Amino acid sequence: MFQSIDYSTLELNPFTTLGNDAFLITAGTLGGWNTMTAAWGSLGYMWNRPIFSIVVRDSRHTYGFVEKAEGFTCSFFSPEWKDALTFCGTHSGRDIDKAAATGLVPVAAAGPGGVERVTFEQANMVFSCTKASRVSFNPGQFAIPGIDTHYPHKDYHCMYIGFIDEILIQTE
């Protein structure tokens, strides 16, 4: 069971939470969704609202879901789910049902106006976000050398800035 908390009460270190712990980016509804593992992102405050920024390569199956959806979730898990997150990061939803393969149980999380978003019963913290902006990375805009080494296949990320509508914490 999830409980909503105010973002101003959240205590976490974003450098360890985002830098060391993987999380799942999920977009769509229970009728059609996809998830992928991520370890890059940012938390902050922009346009007078709390934000969570994610990056998704256009080659990823999740990209189309994020493009079509009005929002997304970022779901964090306890360490015992590391293998499931590794699986979700190394297999495509085009080819396999990630929930069935990992034991993750998709559940609906309500977005603004009753819009349905997907997270997982086993998540211990979920950021439910409305897409506010999208920016496709352009290698010509990289200000320092070496960033392009992250893109040997030239499959650049698209960054999505999402307004954090709700933070859910597992209570059980």
Task: Give a nutshell description of this structure.
With 172 residues, the chain is an alpha+beta fold. It has a single domain (2-170), classed as Roll (Pnp Oxidase, Chain A), CATH 2.30.110.10.
Structural write-up:
The mean pLDDT is 93. This protein has a single domain (2-170), classed as Roll (Pnp Oxidase, Chain A). Strands 1, 2, 3, 4, 5, 6, 9 and 10 form an 8-stranded antiparallel β-sheet that branches. The chain has helices at 14-19, 61-68, 82-90, 98-102; strands spanning 2-5, 23-29, 32-38, 41-46, 49-57, 71-76, 106-110, 116-120, 125-136, 157-170. The protein has 4 helices and 10 strands, in the order βαββββαβααββββ. The N and C termini lie close together (6 Å). The protein is α+β, with helices and mostly antiparallel strands.
| Rg | 15 Å
Number of helices: 4
The total domain count is: 1
CATH class: Mainly Beta
Category from helices, strands and their pairing? alpha+beta
- Specify the overall morphology: globular
What is the helical fraction, as a range of percent? 10-25%
Distance between the termini: 6 Å
